[in-house]
User: What shape does this take?
Amino acid sequence: MWRILSCLILAVALPAAAQGIDREQLERRLASVETLIERSSAARQIEASGDAKARAHRERAREIHKRAVAAFAAGDLQAASRLLPEASVAMFEGVRLAGAEAVIADKRRSDYEARLESVKSLAAAQRRIAADKKSADGAETAKAIDGLVAEAQRAAAAGDIEGARATLDRAYLVAKAAIGSMRGGDTLVRSLDFATKEEEYRYELDRNDTHRMLLGLLVTDPAKAERAQANAARADELRGRAQARAGAGAHAEAVSLLEESTRELVRAIRGAGIYIPG
Assistant: This one.
């Protein structure tokens, strides 16, 4: 944590060089430190902690920042630049005393929100591709993805951000696997127009990896694991053969073997209760 805080100090308050201080850059740094002191997660953590020493450090940071602002207004850029790191250090000492849990919680929440947006974007792409390819199974897969997103949002609303993020990861993989599996006739994969069979092999390897990760996340129940075991074992055997053929330069054969391996993984995933086309 202190490594992270140190990086933040450098980011918002690193002193400018002794000569040639950029006034606009310094003004932005003044604003950044002011945000740190008054409106950041660190400020909220100190405020919520009730720790008198932590609040005293925040007050000291405020005073130093005010002196930096005054120096800047007076044209003493050297003094303003020198004072900003002192204000940041005082603030982060207050965070240390108050505990850094709020900062960590904010980071988790931010990561969750970013993942949620990624899943929504991928889910929208899955619906568009399913509609374009007239996939009869697209609606069922979209429903499964929506169900996982709703489950994640309920967990987040209840304060279980870690659980929500894990569920979103499952939704992400389901959507990605579904997109990669919507093929047949003028297939999605063929429309990518690979330059070589080796390039297509690498694509199929990534698609196989996605299905393997999804299966690993889904199959936690012993009964489901037993049902999926045969398909998973067959998929591993086919993947091994594909890698051997690719190693010998026979990428066309390797692609076919990987496609078959992924189909086995799709069967295993369906057996675990998540429907994806393939």
In short: Residues 1-19, 183-191 have pLDDT under 50 and may be disordered. The first helix runs from residue 2 to 13.
